[in-house]
From TrEMBL:
Family: Belongs to the SELO family.
Cofactor: Mg(2+); Mn(2+)
Keywords: ATP-binding, Magnesium, Manganese, Metal-binding, Nucleotide-binding, Nucleotidyltransferase, Transferase
Name recorded for this polypeptide: Protein nucleotidyltransferase YdiU
Keyword DNA damage tagged: no
Reported function: Nucleotidyltransferase involved in the post-translational modification of proteins. It can catalyze the addition of adenosine monophosphate (AMP) or uridine monophosphate (UMP) to a protein, resulting in modifications known as AMPylation and UMPylation.
Active site: D244
InterPro entries: SelO
Superkingdom to which the source organism belongs: Bacteria
Signal peptide (residue range): none
Reaction(s) this enzyme catalyzes, per UniProt: L-threonyl-[protein] + ATP = 3-O-(5'-adenylyl)-L-threonyl-[protein] + diphosphate; L-seryl-[protein] + ATP = 3-O-(5'-adenylyl)-L-seryl-[protein] + diphosphate; L-histidyl-[protein] + UTP = N(tele)-(5'-uridylyl)-L-histidyl-[protein] + diphosphate; L-seryl-[protein] + UTP = O-(5'-uridylyl)-L-seryl-[protein] + diphosphate
Species per Swiss-Prot/TrEMBL record: Shewanella frigidimarina
EC annotation from Swiss-Prot or TrEMBL: 2.7.7.-, 2.7.7.108
Length: 493
C-alpha cells in the first residue's frame, strides 16, 4: 500500500498518535477482492497479514486515533474518539484515496477503560455488512479483510479478538464538528480549519469561503438524506445512529447492532440497548434530520443561520424523492419524466403523493400479514401486472385489503408491453439475498466452535451478487428459522 497522510499532517490537534498492539496467531478469516482493488491491492499475502495484524509496521503508515464527541441516544458526550480503531493513513488507489483503519487494534487515549479490541463476532459482522451494502448500491464504508487470532478478550464471557480492516473515503463525522463547537469557548478557528480540510479533500468543486461553506452543508444534507432513503428502501436498520456514527460524506459506517428486516415491522428495534426505540427502523429518517440539526448548530460559528436552515429544509424533500425513485424501481412504477406525456411540477407532486400512498399501503399489508420484506418485493419479478392473479396474494391473510391495493396498483402501472423485460427490471432492483442476522450468526458459530470460516466465505460470495438467482444457494433466501427471527444485537455485536 502507498499512503499519503493529509489528515495527520494538516490537522494536528484532531488526533492522538498511537500504535496498535499485535494480535497473536493472526490468520485471514475473510478478504474482499473488490475492496482490495479500491486501494490497488491484489491478493492477500503473509507480509500484508502481519502488517494489518500489527505484528509488522506498515511502511508509510502514521497510526493515529481521531478525537470527536457526539450525541449518544440524544445525550451529549463531550469526549469520545476512536476507542478501538487506529488509522494508518490514506491509501492511494486507482480512483482516489481511502482511509485504512484497524478496528480492534488495541487501546487508544479514547478507549475509556476499554481494551480497544474487537471480538471476532463483531469483526465478522462488520466485514459482511460493509461488502453486502456495497453490492446493494448503498453508500457505505468498505471492509478489506477480517483477521482472526487466538488472543483472548473478555465481554460477557471469554472470546477471541479479531481485526476488521476498514476502508472509508473519510472518517470525519458529525461528532468532529461537535467536539470543537462545544469546547469552552467554541473554537471557530478549529471548526474553520476542519471545514476547509473537508472541502479541499472531499468536495474539491467547492470554494473555502462563505459561498462554498453554504453549498457544502447543503450537499451534506442531501447525501445524508439519500443514504437513509437507501436504508429504508432495502429494509436496513443501523441500530445506533448517534451523531458520532454519522459520516460527513453520507456513507454508512460504524456497524454495531445492525439488522436487515425479516418480517416487515415499522417499529423494529435491532439494538437491545435501545429501550425506547429511538433508533427503530421507522425512526431513522427523523433521526437523520435531528442529527443534521446538531451538526448545523456547530456551524453557526461560520455559516449564517438562515443558510443552515434553508439547507435543512431540503432534507425531507430529498429523502422522499430518493425513496420514491428507489421504490418506483422496485414496484415498476414509471417515473414521471419517462411518461409518454410530460406532466408539470404540480402533477408530478400529486403523482408522488399517490405513489407514496401505494408504497405505504403495501408495507402496511406486509406488516399486518407478517410477511418477509425482501422476499415479498422479490415476488414482483414474477408478476404480470396485467393479470388478475398474483403470487403475492397467496401469502396474504387480509385478502380484501390486498385486492383493494392490487387494483390501485394495476391501474398505476398500466399496460406493460414486454412483461419479461419488466420482470427483469424488478429483479435488478429487488435483491433476492440479504445479510440476515441468523446467517451471519451461523458463520460466526462455525468459526467459534470449529475454526471453520467456510460458511463465512460462502456467505460473502453469495452477498456479492444479491440480485442474481444463484439456484444452488436457494436456502439462503428463505425466511429465518424460528430461533433466527428478529434477532436483537448488542453494541459489541
Amino acid at each position: 500500500m502507498q499512503f499519503k497522510q493529509d489528515f495527520f499532517e494538516q490537522l494536528e490537534g484532531f488526533y492522538s498518535q498511537v500504535y496498535p498492539l499485535p494480535i497473536s496467531n493472526p490468520h485471514w478469516l475473510g478478504w474482499s477482492d473488490d475492496a482490495a482493488q479500491l486501494i490497488g491491492l491484489e491478493k492477500p499475502n503473509t507480509e500484508l497479514l502481519m502488517q494489518l495484524s500489527a505484528n509488522y509496521a506498515a511502511p508509510g503508515a502514521s497510526y493515529y486515533a481521531q478525537v470527536y464527541s457526539g450525541h449518544q441516544f440524544g445525550g451529549y458526550t463531550p469526549r469520545l474518539g476512536d476507542g478501538r480503531s487506529i488509522i494508518l493513513g490514506e491509501a492511494i488507489g486507482p480512483n482516489g484515496a481511502w482511509d485504512v483503519a484497524l478496528k480492534g487494534g488495541g487501546p487508544t487515549p479514547y478507549s475509556r477503560q476499554g481494551d480497544g479490541r474487537a471480538v471476532m463476532r463483531s469483526a465478522v459482522r462488520e466485514f459482511l455488512v460493509s461488502e453486502a451494502l456495497a453490492a446493494l448500491n448503498v453508500p457505505t464504508s468498505r471492509a478489506l479483510a477480517v483477521i482472526g487470532s487466538d488472543l483472548p478478550v473478555w465481554r460477557e464471557s471469554q472470546e477471541t479478538a479479531a481485526i476488521t480492516v476498514r476502508l472509508a473515503k473519510s472518517h470525519i463525522r458529525f461528532g468532529h464538528f461537535e467536539y470543537f463547537f462545544h469546547s469552552e469557548p467554541g473554537d471557530a478557528a478549529k471548526l474553520t480549519q476542519l471545514v476547509n480540510f473537508t472541502i479541499q479533500q472531499h468536495f474539491p468543486h467547492l470554494s473555502t469561503d462563505a459561498a462554498g461553506y453554504k453549498q457544502w452543508f447543503y450537499e451534506v444534507v442531501q447525501s445524508t438524506a439519500k443514504m437513509i432513503a437507501h436504508w429504508q428502501s432495502i429494509g436496513f436498520a443501523h441500530g445506533v445512529m448517534n451523531t458520532d456514527n454519522m459520516s460527513i460524506l453520507g456513507d454508512t459506517f460504524d456497524f454495531g447492532p445492525f439488522a436487515f428486516l425479516d418480517t416487515f415491522k415499522e417499529g423494529f428495534i435491532c439494538n437491545h440497548s435501545d429501550h425506547e426505540g429511538r433508533y427503530a427502523f421507522g425512526q431513522q429518517p427523523g433521526i437523520g434530520l435531528w442529527n443534521l440539526k446538531r451538526l448545523a448548530q456547530t456551524l453557526t460559528l461560520i455559516i449564517e443561520s438562515d443558510d443552515l436552515i434553508a439547507a435543512l429544509n431540503t432534507y425531507q424533500f430529498e429523502l422522499v424523492q430518493q425513496y420514491l425513485l428507489l421504490m418506483r424501481a422496485k414496484l415498476g412504477l414509471s417515473q414521471p419524466n419517462q411518461s409518454p406525456n410530460a406532466i408539470n411540477a404540480e402533477e408530478q407532486a400529486e403523482l408522488g403523493n399517490k405513489d407514496l400512498q401505494l408504497v405505504g399501503q403495501l408495507t402496511g399489508l406486509l406488516e399486518t400479514n407478517q410477511l418477509d420484506y425482501t422476499n415479498s418485493l422479490r415476488r414482483f419479478g414474477q408478476l404480470d401486472p396485467s393479470s388478475a392473479n398474483s403470487s403475492l396474494r397467496d401469502d396474504m391473510v387480509d385478502l380484501a385489503g390486498f385486492d383493494t391495493w392490487y387494483q390501485a396498483y394495476q391501474s398505476r402501472v398500466g399496460e406493460v408491453a414486454d412483461v419479461n423485460a419488466w420482470q427483469c427490471e424488478r429483479n435488478s432492483a429487488n435483491p433476492k439475498y440479504i445479510l440476515r442476522n441468523y446467517l451471519a450468526q451461523e458463520a460466526i458459530i462455525a468459526i467459534e466452535e470449529n475454526g471453520d470460516n467456510s460458511k463465512l466465505l460462502q456467505l460473502q460470495q453469495l452477498l456479492q451478487r444479491p440480485f442474481d438467482e444463484q439456484p444452488e444457494m436457494e436456502d439462503f433466501a428463505k425466511r429465518p428459522p424460528q430461533w433466527g427471527q428478529g434477532l436483537i444485537m448488542s453494541c459489541s455485536s
